[in-house]
Amino acid sequence: FNVSRKAIRLYEKKEIIKGALLHDVGKIYVPFNLTQSPDKLTSIEMDIVKTHPLSSYVFLKENFGEIVGNIAIQHHEYIDGSGYPYGLYQGASEDYALLVQCADIYEALVSKRTYKEQSTYDRAFEIMDGMVLYKPYYDILKEIVLNNPRFQGGD
Question: Is residue 8 scored above 70 in pLDDT?
């Protein structure tokens, strides 16, 4: 049985979209008072929050498959090994997880949260410039935002 490359790419795109939309579903197992706390979390509380990628992975892999599950478990892994839950280095994380990571970080920075004010898009990029991100995907994100004013609002 021969599957065309175009069909595979379309399948992967759909899986990446699912992963991008559902990667944080495991936060439903994190106590609400931690995810919505206006205060700085203790290291123990942060360790609890850091369980959400694994909870997301278990649910998503079982219900949506490996690609979607991998996006969930790897979206907080940085290419220098400083991320969580496993401290994976570049090459160990799936490319699509690194792509979702860039968008997830940008969205978190430009959104108002109980624990922080929203950043402007240019301030978000200043912060992200200092982070260890997969540069090709980060550059694409910046290009998209800078060329589309509707992504610059933060609401």
Answer: no
